[in-house]
Amino acid sequence: MTTFVRCSVLAAAMAVAGCSGGQPASGGAAAAPPPTEVKAVTLAAAPTPDSSEFVATIRSLRSTTIQPQVDGFVRQILVKSGDRVRPGQPIAQIDPDRQQATLGAVESQRAAREADLTLAQQQLTRTQKLFEAGAVSRAELDQAEAAHKSAEAQLAAIQSQIRESQVELQYYRVTAPTAGIVGDVPVRPGDRVTSSTVITTIDQSSGLEAYVNVPLEHAAGLREGLQVDLLDSSGQVVTSNPITFVAPRADEATQSVLVKSTLRQPTPGIRVMQYLRARIVWGQQPAITVPVVAVSRLAGQHFAFVAEPAGQGFVARMKPISVGAIVGNDYVVTSGLKAGERVIVSNTQKIGDGAPVKPT
How confident is the prediction for the chain on average, in pLDDT? Predict the structure, then answer.
């Protein structure tokens, strides 16, 4: 029985050896993948603006509100929002028919008053001659003189009413008092307007101010002269100007402090009542920055790949970092990286933690 078992084990061993073709069971370690070529930048502390971003509203230093001086129905709007107007250019026409009828009635009375004055003058002339000849009394002469003066006064009153009506008739055509850009026009033809109705506004682009409401937690550092950068939607600086006014009191409703920055130069593309991103620069301090393209975010945590030496080459190490504001195309790093480290800025989607890389 023992001899049979030994023979079976030997036969099985010979069969395994035959199937393996005489090669060892292990073919050796697999070949390592080639390193991925990446671009890397060496970090260094550099002067970086210490800043905070808020929202700015553009307002005009030279803004004129256009309101009619008479009541009536709007017949025609002669401008549209965004038009440039010159002084005296018509903006709107209010229906003047009633005023024209009033003026016509007053002018018709002038003819009657002129006829009365002519008659009174003739009567006064005849009475004076008769008085000199002794045919009438002094009382009759005084009565003729009084009638003449009364006719003169009535004619003067009518002429004054005519002038007043003519001036008022001009108010039915609303004109621009200054040159500038027409704002919103909320009224439409057919609307009834009064002297309190706002037809539009006229703003001059040469005098603009940025209004920024800064929360109270940042108010301690506010002072005149700090730089205010206005940014477009892509984060590029449109214009930079100093703070020219800091409100002495906080706004009770918003718990913020109003800051004004006068735009020193006309800036194309900026309009009155436009909202822009505003960055207040508190000062300069050394900080480490990393390109935005090198930072990824997973589950709310920011990460960056660092090329670390390993043997004869480099490997990628994913490091959790904390970042602050964006300055230009870089994040300000508050923790997780230090000067001298080489941050990978390309092909980050092709590598993982510990992957071999070849920085260039």
Answer: 85
pLDDT surpassing 90 at residue 66 = yes
Task: State the CATH architecture for 46-61+204-359.
Answer: Beta Barrel (2.40)
* Contact status, residue 124 vs residue 148, Cβ threshold 8 Å: yes
pTM of the model: 0.52
The tens digit of pLDDT for each residue in 146-190 reads 999 999 999 999 999 999 989 889 999 999 998 888 988 999 999
In CATH, the architecture of 96-171 is Orthogonal Bundle (1.10)
